[in-house]
């Protein structure tokens, strides 16, 4: 992806070459998110934001999609930066990073830019037909640098090398955590609209385990097999990264009569793996029961989060975030490395007055924290963002 490189995105973990920098960045991310036990430590950060999400949906159900984005952003910003977003209004840092993620999606569309098809164009002088990407690349590279600096603050560390590592890996944590989690939750909402029988079965299981006197908790998970299947199906049914991340071969490979030369780029068709009818019966159907006995179809998370050195390091955190959100509500998608459903009609409302009472109660338990927007607002104005 030559254009992504021009914009500076090739310096981020998910597009880096496998070298010492990649291993160093990967190690930093793995230390924070790499195991189930580590991800479970963040439940106290996830739970308040999931409850804030319920309050926002209760008060303003028409803006559900924005509430989904806000929840996903709030969780990862709280965990990664210790940053509290502005409640009930646009947060400047969230807005800046969302712009950067939108730019990342546009820059990484497969063969979406002339320079990706004809790399020689990068050596032509600006102004020659077909080189408009150069100006766009400079603008987006500046946006990326501003986002890295603002999101991690201006305090200098003693080691400039490690400071840059931390900035880049922190931004990747946000992009990999917030954008993909929001897309998965959005897909889950669409599935509940299209498959109301699944929603009813999940609600019945939750009520049988949790009752009506409290909201569900992480501790309930082991007793909710159908809901666990629903979480898995949300990752499979409308996968957020259908083409996965490109891998490059380290050596010549012979595979079933094909010769794959060293240095070739391979794109895994994760969408196909998760919709192969020989693996998943009626793959276009959203069916959490497929993972339960007697069917016991394969766990889609083995494919959904990628492979090998480039497997998603935040997969366990994504699973935790999706679970707690799921237990408390013709398909078209946008283009880019991360996709999500386009707008669709829906209605969302509390199931009972008792549900409203329980949601209102969490406002006292998890009050909105002091917002940190003022820490970055002046800097953003200075950068013209």
UniProtKB/TrEMBL annotation:
<dbReference type="GO" id="GO:0005506">
    <property type="term" value="F:iron ion binding"/>
</dbReference>
<dbReference type="InterPro" id="IPR002401">
    <property type="entry name" value="Cyt_P450_E_grp-I"/>
</dbReference>
<keyword id="KW-0349">Heme</keyword>
<protein>
    <submittedName>
        <fullName>Cytochrome p450 oxidoreductase</fullName>
    </submittedName>
</protein>
<keyword id="KW-0479">Metal-binding</keyword>
<feature type="binding site" description="axial binding residue">
    <location>
        <position position="312"/>
    </location>
    <ligand>
        <name>heme</name>
    </ligand>
</feature>
<comment type="similarity">
    <text>Belongs to the cytochrome P450 family.</text>
</comment>
<dbReference type="InterPro" id="IPR050364">
    <property type="entry name" value="Cytochrome_P450_fung"/>
</dbReference>
<keyword id="KW-0560">Oxidoreductase</keyword>
<dbReference type="GO" id="GO:0004497">
    <property type="term" value="F:monooxygenase activity"/>
</dbReference>
<keyword id="KW-0503">Monooxygenase</keyword>
<dbReference type="InterPro" id="IPR036396">
    <property type="entry name" value="Cyt_P450_sf"/>
</dbReference>
<dbReference type="GO" id="GO:0016705">
    <property type="term" value="F:oxidoreductase activity, acting on paired donors, with incorporation or reduction of molecular oxygen"/>
</dbReference>
<dbReference type="InterPro" id="IPR001128">
    <property type="entry name" value="Cyt_P450"/>
</dbReference>
<dbReference type="InterPro" id="IPR017972">
    <property type="entry name" value="Cyt_P450_CS"/>
</dbReference>
<dbReference type="Pfam" id="PF00067">
    <property type="entry name" value="p450"/>
</dbReference>
<dbReference type="GO" id="GO:0020037">
    <property type="term" value="F:heme binding"/>
</dbReference>
<keyword id="KW-0408">Iron</keyword>
């Amino acid at each position: 992806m030559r254009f992504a490189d021009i914009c500076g995105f090739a310096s981020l973990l998910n597009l880096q070459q496998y070298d010492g920098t990649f291993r160093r960045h990967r190690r930093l991310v793995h230390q924070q998110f790499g195991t189930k036990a580590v991800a479970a430590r963040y439940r106290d950060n996830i739970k308040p934001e999931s409850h804030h999400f319920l309050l926002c949906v209760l008060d303003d159900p028409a803006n559900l999609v924005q509430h989904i984005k806000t929840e996903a952003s709030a969780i990862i910003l709280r965990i990664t930066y210790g940053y509290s977003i502005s409640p009930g209004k646009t947060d400047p840092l969230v807005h800046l990073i969302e712009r950067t993620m939108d730019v990342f999606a546009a820059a990484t569309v497969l063969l979406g830019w002339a320079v990706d098809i004809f790399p020689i164009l990068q050596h032509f002088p600006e102004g020659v037909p077909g080189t408009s990407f150069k100006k766009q690349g400079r603008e987006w590279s500046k946006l990326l640098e501003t986002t890295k600096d603002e999101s991690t603050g201006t305090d200098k560390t003693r080691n400039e090398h490690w400071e840059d590592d931390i900035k880049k890996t922190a931004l990747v944590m946000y992009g990999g955590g917030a954008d993909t989690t929001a897309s998965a939750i959005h897909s889950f909402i669409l599935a509940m609209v299209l498959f109301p029988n699944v929603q009813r079965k999940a609600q019945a299981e939750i009520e049988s385990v949790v009752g009506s006197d409290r909201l569900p908790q992480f501790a309930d998970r082991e007793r909710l097999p159908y809901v666990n299947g629903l979480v898995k199906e949300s990752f499979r049914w409308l996968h957020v990264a259908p083409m996965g991340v490109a891998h490059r071969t380290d050596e010549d490979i012979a595979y079933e009569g094909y010769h794959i030369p060293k240095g070739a780029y391979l794109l895994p068709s994760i969408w196909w793996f998760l919709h192969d009818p020989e693996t998943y019966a009626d793959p276009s159907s959203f069916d959490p029961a497929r993972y339960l006995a007697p069917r016991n179809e394969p766990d889609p998370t083995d494919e959904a989060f990628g492979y090998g050195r480039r497997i998603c390091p935040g997969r366990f955190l994504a699973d935790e975030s999706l679970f707690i959100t799921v237990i408390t509500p013709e398909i078209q998608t946008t283009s880019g490395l991360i996709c999500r459903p386009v707008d669709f009609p829906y209605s969302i409302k509390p199931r009972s007055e008792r549900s409203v009472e329980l949601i209102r109660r969490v406002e006292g338990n998890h009050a909105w924290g002091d917002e940190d927007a003022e820490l970055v607002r002046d800097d953003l104005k200075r950068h013209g963002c």
